[in-house]
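Entry for the shared binder. Reason: the reviewer on the internal report wants the predicted structure included alongside the sequence.
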Amino acid sequence: MSIIITVSNQKGGVGKTTTAAALASGIILVGKKVLGIDLDPQGNLGFCLGADPEHPYSVLDVLNGSASVQDAVCHADSCDLLISDITLSSSGLEIIPSSREYILKNAIAPIINDYDYIIIDTPPALNLLTVNAYAVSDFLIIPLASDILSLVGLTQLKETIESVQNTFNPNLNVLGILLTKYNRRTLLSRDVFEMAQQLAAQINSRVFHTKIRSGVAIAEAPAHGESIFSYNPRSGAVRDYAEFIHEISDDIHLKGGEANG
């Protein structure tokens, strides 16, 4: 059965999609089969991982039952994907009378054993799509940009996580908080780190030892149709992501090598 990892934060601009794409492409490098699921109506995960934008089905078609999950899977060069687009922002899933929180879990059930890992990118909101991702996941990773505004709303995120653990998925494990756009030379980054540690303690989790620096290669790679690891493996930020995958490899039972080869 797949190990399912959701990358989530209701704040935009924190490196959520970049982290999800890095996880997917990094895990592939150790020989594992990966499915990426894009639950963000912006559809950026598919772009980052080289999905065909003309693919006829999106994840919404799977969620509303108009297409089978097998037909909807897009086979990209990097990994398999369930892509998204702006139509997901008005999905209509809220009107389903029962088991709304398990729509995603039920929809992907036919292929749950076809992959070693499933990586889910979520919207910058704590909505029904996010709850569906939490309800099906084994692990949750919270990217957090190293600025004060990124801390706003984390109390609500904590409450949502606890609610899901108490009702829909008691096995959801908050793997940790990943600091992004980190500059160890600034007092601000160090202050955010300390506040992130306080939040992590409240949700029985941790702040990862690895911190992700800003890097041009991270932004450039999708435009060149490459993963960050093939585009510029010498970039500091790319090396940070490789180190991050290595750091969590025991937690997510990832064996077979390191993300940077």
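Summary line for the report: The CA atoms of residues 17 and 44 lie 7 Å apart.
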